[in-house]
């Protein structure tokens, strides 16, 4: 492998991130979850009434990544999809 690539901090961070995610993968596969879905559930576990906007900010994810995480078509069977309630600001809460 190219030595200059391994000296790049960004490559080291990328490699560490992939390695950390790989540790979770067997456990998440048993639950039928992706890593982003797991992160969404962690935030929702800790906070009630989180808006989609706040969820995106907390996880540093854009709406394109969050939509599949919260949509019914990608949701595990055991995860009940509560009604999305509009907030006073007009944002959807989960």
Secondary structure: elements and pairs:
Elements: H1 3-6, H2 9-31, H3 35-46, H4 52-59, H5 63-70, E1 85-86, E2 92-93
Antiparallel strand pairs: 1-2
- Overall body shape: extended
The secondary-structure element order is HHHHHEE
CATH superfamily of the largest domain: Winged helix-like DNA-binding domain superfamily/Winged helix DNA-binding domain
Characterize the biggest β-sheet: 2 strands, antiparallel
Query: Approximately how much helix is present in the residues?
Result: 55-70%
- Rg estimate, integer Å: 16 Å
Topology, number of strands:
2
State the end-to-end CA separation: 45 Å
Helical segment count:
5
Mean pLDDT: 79
Number of individual domains: 2
**According to CATH, what is the class of the largest domain?**
Mainly Alpha
The chain-level structural class is mainly alpha
- Poorly predicted segments: none
Describe the structure.
- The protein is mainly α and 94 residues long.
- It contains five helices and two strands, in the order αααααββ.
- It has a two-stranded antiparallel ribbon with strand order 1-2.
- Strand 1 and strand 2 form a beta hairpin.
Properties at a glance:
single chain; 94 residues; mainly alpha; Arc Repressor Mutant, subunit A; 2 domains; two-stranded antiparallel ribbon; 2 strands; extended
Summarize the structure in short:
By secondary structure, this protein is mainly alpha-helical. 59% of the residues lie in helices and 4% in strands. The chain has a two-stranded antiparallel sheet with strand order 1-2.
């Amino acid at each position: 492998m190219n030595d200059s690539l391994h000296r790049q901090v960004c490559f080291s961070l990328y490699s560490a991130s992939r390695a950390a995610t790989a540790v979770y993968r067997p456990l998440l596969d048993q639950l039928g979850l992706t890593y982003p879905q797991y992160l969404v559930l962690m935030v929702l576990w800790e906070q009630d009434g989180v808006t989609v906007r706040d969820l995106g900010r907390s996880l540093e994810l854009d709406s394109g990544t969050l939509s599949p995480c919260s949509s019914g078509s990608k949701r595990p069977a055991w995860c009940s999809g509560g009604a999305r309630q509009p907030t006073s600001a007009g944002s959807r809460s989960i």
